Amino acid sequence: MTVNTPALQRALDGRWAATRDDVRAQMGQLSLDPDPDLSTEEYRALTTENLRGLAESGRPQQGFDPAYGGGGDVGGVVTAFAMLGYGDLSLLVKAGVQWGLFGGAVQVLGTSRHHDEYLRAIMNGELLGCFAMTETGHGSDVQHLRTTATYDPATQEFEIHTPDAGARKDYIGNAARDGRMAVAFAQLITGGETHGVHALLVPIRDEDGQPMPGVTIGDCGRKAGLNGVDNGRLVFDHVRVPRDALLNRFGDVSEDGTYSSPIANETRRFFTMLGTLVRGRISVAGGAVTATEKALALAIRYGATRRQFAEPATGEEVVVLDYLVHQRKLLPALATTYALHFAQAELVADMHDLQAPGADAPEAAQRDLETRAAGIKAVATWHATAAIQTCREACGGAGYLTANLLPQLKADTDVFTTFEGDNTVLLQLVAKTILSDYGRRVAKLDVVGKARFAADLLGGMVAERTGVRAVLNRGDLRDRAHQRRLLVGREEHLLAGAAQRMRKALAPGADQFGIFNGTQDHLIVAARAYVDRIVFDAFAAAVEQVEDTEVRALLEVVRTLHALSVIEGDRAFFVEHGYLTAGRAKAVTQAVNTLCGELRPHARTLVDAFGIPEARLACPLLDGEKDASSAVTDPAPSDEEPSDLASVG
Amino acid sequence: MTVNTPALQRALDGRWAATRDDVRAQMGQLSLDPDPDLSTEEYRALTTENLRGLAESGRPQQGFDPAYGGGGDVGGVVTAFAMLGYGDLSLLVKAGVQWGLFGGAVQVLGTSRHHDEYLRAIMNGELLGCFAMTETGHGSDVQHLRTTATYDPATQEFEIHTPDAGARKDYIGNAARDGRMAVAFAQLITGGETHGVHALLVPIRDEDGQPMPGVTIGDCGRKAGLNGVDNGRLVFDHVRVPRDALLNRFGDVSEDGTYSSPIANETRRFFTMLGTLVRGRISVAGGAVTATEKALALAIRYGATRRQFAEPATGEEVVVLDYLVHQRKLLPALATTYALHFAQAELVADMHDLQAPGADAPEAAQRDLETRAAGIKAVATWHATAAIQTCREACGGAGYLTANLLPQLKADTDVFTTFEGDNTVLLQLVAKTILSDYGRRVAKLDVVGKARFAADLLGGMVAERTGVRAVLNRGDLRDRAHQRRLLVGREEHLLAGAAQRMRKALAPGADQFGIFNGTQDHLIVAARAYVDRIVFDAFAAAVEQVEDTEVRALLEVVRTLHALSVIEGDRAFFVEHGYLTAGRAKAVTQAVNTLCGELRPHARTLVDAFGIPEARLACPLLDGEKDASSAVTDPAPSDEEPSDLASVG
C-alpha cells in the first residue's frame, strides 16, 4: 500500500482546506518561537504584537457578522484558530480571549447597539477586552457567581460590585495588561429582585491604560504555561455603567427598572446564554487536537531516526520506532488523534451550519451540539495531556529540552483540561443530558416496548449470561460494524445502569445527594462511552467519504486501531459484562499489536499529512533526519548477557 | 477512630526519623522558593548558592567514607536528599549530581589515590563535578558509548576523545556553568584492544572557570523544569589525562599498558560497575515520592476547604473532597504514595546495610537490590508524573498558577521517568532478571516438580477454567493475605507466560528479535506485577510493625485501598484469567469507593503526617483554610434543572 501524502492531507483538511492553507502560509509571518528566557512582561508584549499581526491579516474578522464587515465564516475562523496550535499556544489563547470569548460574547449576547458601537473595534484589535466570568470562589458553578449588577433607576445605571473576596474575577485573560473593557458576568438585580447571571460591558482601563475608578486590577503572575497571556483579577467597588451596557439579547431592563426576557424561566435563560458561547469550548478542543498532532509529529519523526540497542543477529542498532513498546506508546495515540481530528471537523461544520448568519437553529440541534462539544472537549483535552506527556517521554532527555518544543506544548495545553469547563464537570453535564434523552426515549415506548425495556434493565445480569451478547464474541474485529456494535453495546449498557441507579433517588425520603454522589463515577464512565461512540461515528463517516482507495484503506486501519485501543483500554468492562470472552479480549490486545506493526511503515506519512509547516517543527530533535541514511553498525560483544536488554545508565 | 498525627508521622519517618527532623529544620535556612521570573542564569546562581549552603551544613558529608571525614551513613544521606523534594527540586538534582553521582562515582569506582586527593574537596563543595555518562547518541544503551580513552604508554597518559557528533556527552548536570571536573565514561583502549566502558577523572575547567584545552563545553539551555541545574554538553578533542585519572577499582592499566581487572568478563565487569551506582536510582525514586507527597498535601488540603455546587436539600455548597469523583482522583493516589513511601524506606535501609563501610554484600543481595531499585524507580516516577498531574487538575485554574507550587513540581519531576534509566528500559531489565531467577527456580526442581511445572505452563488455560483459582473468588477483599494472593497470582501467571513465549526464541532458526520484540509488552506488564507485589509486601510489613493500634488500623485501610486500586486498575487481567469473577471485579470497584469514603475523614491527617514543613506548603491555594469554618450557604433556585450538575462555565 503506497499512500499519497497530499491525498491524505486533503482528507484531513476537509471542508476548510483553503483556510488551512492560508493559515499555513500566514504562520510564517509571525514570531512563533519566543526565546524561552523572555521575562513574563516581554513574552506578553510579543504575544500582543502577534495578536495585532493577526488582526491585520483580516483572519479573525471572518468569524463575525457580515453586516459589520465580518466574513460570517464561523467554521473557518474556528478552524484557523485551532491551526495556531501548530505555533504558539499563548497566541492561540490570547486570540481566543479577544475574538472568541470577548468578541463572541458581544456578538451573541449583545444587540445592534453594542454591535454598532464595538464590533469593528473588537475585530480589528483596537479594543482589547476580557471575558470576566470565573470568580475565585466559583469556576464550574457559574450559575452561582456572586458579583452583582444592581440597577439604579434614579441614574439609569448599573452598579457593578464585588461583594466579597470569593467574588473576585480570577484567571481573566487580557486583564493583567492589555484589556480596556470586560464583558462582566454578574447577578442582575433590579427592584430588589435577582434575575440570575447576565453579562455587561464594563470599561476597566482608560485610554492611558490606567484602571478605571473603582476597578482594582490584579495579576495572576507566572503560570505553568501560556505565559504570553496576561491573566489577571478584577475587583469592582460600586462601579457604575450606563443602562445600555447590559448585553440585552436574552434579558433587558427598562428605564424604570422593569426586567423583561424572551425566556421566562431563569435557569433555561441562563443555559441558553451559556449555550451561545459553545464556540469557546469547541475552539479549545481544536487547539488540543492540533497541539497533539504537533507533539506526535515530533516524537514519531524522532522515533523513526533514533537508534538504540543493537540487534544481536546483525549488530545493527534498531530504530526505536521498530520496537513494539515504542509503537504502543505512539501509534494508538496517533490513531485516536486522527479520530478526534475528524470528530472535531464534524463538530465545527455542524456549529457553522447552526450558527451561520440567518440560520435559525432548532433548540434540540443546538443542545445536541453543546453536549457533543462538552464531551469532545473533555476527551480531546485529556487525550492531549496524556499523549503530549507520552511524546515527551518517548524522546527521553531530548524531549525535556525547551529547544525541542515538547515542553512548551505540554505546559501550555495542561490547563485545557480544566478551563472552558472542568472536564469532570463537563462529563457530568454530558451524562445528565444523555440520561434525560434516554428517559424521553423510554417514555415514548409503547406498552410492549416499556415492558421489554424494564426487563432489559432488571435483567441486565441475566442478559449477560445468555446468548444476547454471544454475537459480539464472533465477528471480525476489523469490521467497522462490529467495532460499532461493541461501542454501542457498552454505551447503552452503562446508560441503562445509570438510569436504574438514579431512579432510586426518586423514592420518597431517598438520600438524593448520597445516591447522586455514589453514582458519579458510573455517570462519568457512561458519558465517556457516549463520547467514544460519537467520535468513532464521526471518524468512520469521514473515512467512508474518502475517494482515494489507498487513503481510505489506510484510514480504515487507523480507525480499527483507534477503536480496538479504546476497547482494549476498557476491556475489563467488556469481559465483565459478557461482551467479550477472555479469549476475545486477548485477541483485541493481539490485534492492537498487529495493527501497530501494520501502521509502522506509514507512520511518517500519517504525521506529514497534518500539513504542519516545517518551520514550526524545526528543532534539534530532528537533526537525526539529516543523516538518517547512515545507520550506525556496532559489532555487539558476544557475551553471556544479551546486550540489547541490559545496558541502562 | 481518632488517629494521632505525630504517631502516624513516626511510622512514616521510620529508621531515619532524626535525620528527617534535622532536614526539616534545615530547610528553613535555604532559599527554596525562587522567584518564578528569575532568568536561567539567576536561577542557576541561586541553586549553586543553596548547594554551598548544604555543604556547610555538613549533611552531604554524612554519606561518605568515615576515613575521609564522612559519616558513613548512606541511608541517612539518601533519606535527607529525598526530603529536598519538599523544597526546590533543582537543588535536589544539583546535590544529587555533585554528591550522589560525581562524588559517589569517585567513592565507589575509585581507589585510595582518588579518595585521598579528591573526596574532601568534593564533600565540602570546593570541587564541583559532573557525571559524564550519557551521550547524544547513547542514553539507555550505556554499554555502547562511543567516547574513547586510549592509553599511550609513551607518555603514560589516556587520550579522551569524542569520535563523532553522537558521542558528545549530553544533558550533563553541573557541566554548563559550575563543574571543574568530570567523571567521564569512555571505552577504554590499550594496546589496540577495547576493554569496555570505564570511568576517568577529566578536568573540564581551569581555576578561572575557562574550559580546559581540548574541551568544548555546550549548554543545554532552558528545560521543561529543573532550570536551576546547569545541564550541558562536553566534547573532548584528544584531551590527555595522566594514567592515574582512571578510576581503577574494577579495571586498571599498568605503566606499560597492560590491562588488568578483578572481573575477567567484560559484561559482568560493566554491570558490576553500574551496580555500584544504584544509589542514584534509589535517590530519584525518593525524590519522586516526596514531590508526590507535597502535591497531594496541597491538593487534598485545598479540596478539603474548596466548595462548589450547592446540595439541593440544604442549599449549602459542598466541600469538593466530599464528592466521590474527587476522592477517586486523590485518595487512591495517596494510598499508593504511602505504599511507595514504605517500599522506598525499605529499599534505603537495605542499601544502607549492604553498602555500609566494611559490609561485604553477597553478589545475589546486591543484584536483588538493583532489581528492586530499578523497578521501584520506574513505578514511583510514573506515579509521580500521573499523581502530580491529577493534583494540578484537582485544583483547577488555581493549580495552574506558579504561585501555588504545583506547576513547578510537575515540570521538575517530569524528567524523572526518563533519567537515571528510562522507565520502559528499566522494567525490561527487571523482567529479564526475574525471568532468569524464575528459570533458576525451575532448574532446581526435581523431576516431579518439573513435570508439574510444565503442566502448569502448558495448561495455563485449563487451570483458568478449573477450580484452582476459585479460592480467589471467595475470601475477604480487605484481608491482607487475600490481597497478596491476588497480586502473587498475577505475578506468577505473567512470569510463566513470558517464560513460555521467550522459550520459543531458543528454537533453532527462530526469529529472535521478532519474538523478543513481540513479547516486550508482556515483559513490561510482568515486571510491573512484580514491582506491585514487592511494594505491597514492603507496605504490609511496615504496617505490621506499627505498635499504635489506631495508626495501624488506619494504615491497614490505606493498604487495602492501595491494593484494591492496583487490582482494579488491572482488573481486566484478573477477570480474563479467572482470578476474579465479573461480580467480584465489580465488588473491587465498589470497595474502592467505600474505602475512599472511609479515608475521607482522615485525609488531612494522612497528608499532615508526612511532616512537610508548613513554610514549604505556604501558598495562596491554602488561603481558604483561614476561613474554612465560615461555610457559604446559597439558596439554590428550585428550578427544573438540578443546579448541582448543570452549571459549567
TrEMBL record, chains A, B:
Coiled coil: none annotated. Residues 130-239 form the Acyl-CoA oxidase/dehydrogenase middle domain. Residues 275-434 form the Acyl-CoA oxidase C-alpha1 domain. Residues 493-621 form the Acyl-CoA oxidase C-terminal domain. Gene3D superfamilies: Acyl-CoA dehydrogenase/oxidase, N-terminal domain, Butyryl-CoA Dehydrogenase, subunit A, domain 2, Butyryl-CoA Dehydrogenase, subunit A, domain 3. Residues 627-649 are annotated as: Disordered. Pfam families: ACOX, ACOX_C_alpha1, Acyl-CoA_dh_M. Its cofactor is FAD. It comes from the Bacteria. Belongs to the acyl-CoA oxidase family. This is Acyl-CoA dehydrogenase. It comes from Pseudonocardia aurantiaca.
